[in-house]
Amino acid sequence: MAMEVAPSFPTWEEIELAENYMVCCMYQEAAALSSSIIEQLVDKNVKTNERNCEFGDMLESAAMILVQSYKALGRTSEMLKQLKVLFGSVTAIPAQVFLTGIVKRQASSTKKALVDFWQLAFSYQVNPLAAVQPLPPATRGSR
């Protein structure tokens, strides 16, 4: 008869390791570990129906690491979809994590829109002037 080993559940040390990955710019590793931690915590909650303050804190911490890692990886467009997959629904995502994810996603797309706008505005400022009044050719030593 095989002896069943109880599955290990995430610890604060694992969450700290994911955070350390993120701080060391190892965003892919941080995202993968935090995703794994969230999956394990959600699975534990489904099996035991245990809800306590520490469980919520661990879940929120791991999810914030995931959100920040996705932001650093430039994957903000995938963030909400991944959170929904991990948590099962939008309503199960901790409110602080959901709001942070939305803000980071909006900030990322706003930044891109602003950069595109300024590039476009700059090109309209420079190009028409150059077409109407071309700069004289540079001559060396003509003073």
TrEMBL record:
InterPro entries per record: APEM9
Name of the protein in its database record: Protein APEM9-like isoform X2
Organism (species): Solanum pennellii
Classification of source organism: Eukaryota, Viridiplantae, Streptophyta, Embryophyta, Tracheophyta
